[in-house]
Amino acid sequence: MSVGPTFDQNDIGWKIRLCQQIRNVDFRVLPCLGGMVLPHYNTRASWLVMVVEGKGRFEMACPHLGSQSQRQGHYQKVQGSLSVGDVFVIPARHPLKIIANEGSNLRMAGFAVNGHCNRLNFLAGQESIWRNLDREAKELSFNIPAREIEEILEKQNQSYFVAGPEQEQQHVSSILDLVLF
Which end of the chain, N or C, is less surrounded by CB atoms within 10 Å? Predict the structure, then answer.
């Protein structure tokens, strides 16, 4: 079943969703115009993405690389450079952020599989899942006072794309560090 395209944008980038689902496959084009895609993860969908223009980098949290001797739920930080022609996989339930190099317009095209009942969860930005938690849950999750976490979250007023870390978005990077690493 095919549904018409959807389009979301802000000053940093845009995304177009060309189809809702074609047998659990979703295709998107994501240009990141000198900024970054906020930290997020998909609950069910895994993505195959190709860089079609520009340069950048990614940071991903991987539960499979965590030490077996450590407690369950430990994530290992994985990072890498991105350039034209690179293809990478974003497994479901692997938090990720993508950053364009300063002055570079990073454009990526990709498709998701197993997207049925998928939910895209942001870990930073205006749509962050952390905004919905009670103060007590925030304190237990981060082991710092809830007001400090809420101050960080309140500074994040954009969704999906933001200016890159080089452009003074320290609160976005710090929440990823708090949450994942």
Answer: N
Structure confidence at residue 94 (pLDDT)? 93
pLDDT tens digits, one per residue of 51-104: 988 899 999 998 876 555 455 567 788 999 999 999 999 999 999 999 888 888
Q: How far apart are CA 16 and CA 7, in angstroms?
A: 5
In the chain the beta strands, taken as DSSP E runs, fall at 6-9, 14-17, 25-33, 35-42, 46-53, 55-62, 76-83, 87-90, 96-100, 105-113, 120-122, 161-163
Task: List the chain residues with pLDDT less than 50.
Answer: 1-2, 21, 24, 69, 168-175, 178, 180-181
CATH number of the domain to which 87 belongs: 2.60.120.10
Query: Does the predicted TM-score (pTM) go above 0.90?
Result: no
Domain containing 19 equals 6-180
**Does residue 102 lie in a domain region?**
yes
* Total domains, the chain: 1
